[in-house]
Structure formats: C-alpha cells, structure tokens
Amino acid sequence: MKRAQIVLGIALTIIVALGARAVVRGRHAGTSASPASPARAWVPAAERAPDSVRVRVQVLNATNITGLARRATMVLRDRGYDVVETGNTKGPLDTTVVLDLSGHPEWAQRIAKTLAPARVQARKDTSRYLDIAVVLGATWRPPAEPFYP
C-alpha cells in the first residue's frame, strides 16, 4: 500500500512539473525579437519597421529624464528598427522630433506613430549612415515594461 502511494505521488509531481513548464513556455513563447516572431504581431503594421528593410535609427534624449533614450531604443527594437546609436543632446525639448535623413518620409511617420506625440521633419543627410534620427521630448512616455517574475 505504501509503495503504491509513493509511486502515485512521484507520478503526480512529474505531471504538475511538466504542466508548469508548458505554461511558462507558452507565456514566453513570443518574446524573441526576430522579424518573423509572433511577438510583433500585436503591434499595428503602421508602427512596425517595413519588412525586409534595415532602417538605421539614432535616438537622442533631449530631456532631464534619465534613461529615456534607452527605453525608446527598446521600444523601437521591439518593432524591428535597427537602433545603431543612442545618447543625449541639448534640451530640454517639449515634443519629440523625428528627423527623416534619408528621404523616406513613410519610415519617419511610422516611428512618429510609435513615439507619439511626435512631429516629423525632413533634413537631408549626405553621409547615409542614418536613416532616421529621433530627438525625444518630455511629452513622450514609454509604455510599461513587461513583468516576468
């Protein structure tokens, strides 16, 4: 009788452990940042980077809020943009400005929708190193970060 109870206890423990593992894997299944990932499926198409195009972005913080450029970098990378440079600039600036440096206003509009409220300005850059430059203003608030215990 005791042996049957021990075997049953072990079997139940294994089943519960496998079930918990399946729940955790299901919860974190869509957290990769690859372009084909379902993690970006919840983001409207108007806010995602265009498919099969590398959009190089610079993010600059023009506020007194520490870490704002890093948070904006995370948001843009989650949406498929290639943020190649972050930093600070003179400020303070009230409204976020998205600078179109490469002659692709639709890319700048997509980023402006992501970082709303923002305005778009065209500024020609002959170096062709960057496609878009973002200067963050104090009115932009980053979305809440996901909590994974």
Descriptive report:
- The protein is α/β, with parallel strands linked by helices and 149 residues long.
- It has a domain of 88 residues: Alpha-Beta Plaits, CATH 3.30.70.
- Helix content is 32%, strand content 19%.
- The protein contains three helices and five strands; from the N terminus they run H-E-H-E-E-H-E-E.
- The protein has a five-stranded mixed β-sheet, covered by helices on one side.
- Helix 2 links the parallel strand 1 and strand 2.
- The radius of gyration is 22 Å and the shape is elongated.
Features:
single chain, 149 residues, alpha/beta, Alpha-Beta Plaits, 5-stranded mixed beta sheet, 32% helix
Query: SSE string, helix = H, strand = E?
Result: HEHEEHEE
Spatially, the strands of the biggest sheet line up as 2-1-5-3-4
Number of helices: 3
Q: Which shape, going by the Cα principal axes? A: elongated
Largest sheet entry = 5 strands, mixed
CATH class of the domain at 49-136: Alpha Beta
Distance between the termini: 40 Å
Radius of gyration: 22 Å
Structural class: alpha/beta
**Please, what is the average pLDDT?**
84
Helix content: 25-40%
Question: Low-confidence runs (pLDDT<50, min 5 residues)?
Answer: 30-39
Strand content of the residues, in percent?
A: 15-25%
Per DSSP E runs of 2 or more residues, the count of β-strands stands at 5
**CATH fold annotation of the domain at 49-136:** Alpha-Beta Plaits
The CATH architecture designation of the domain at 49-136 is 2-Layer Sandwich
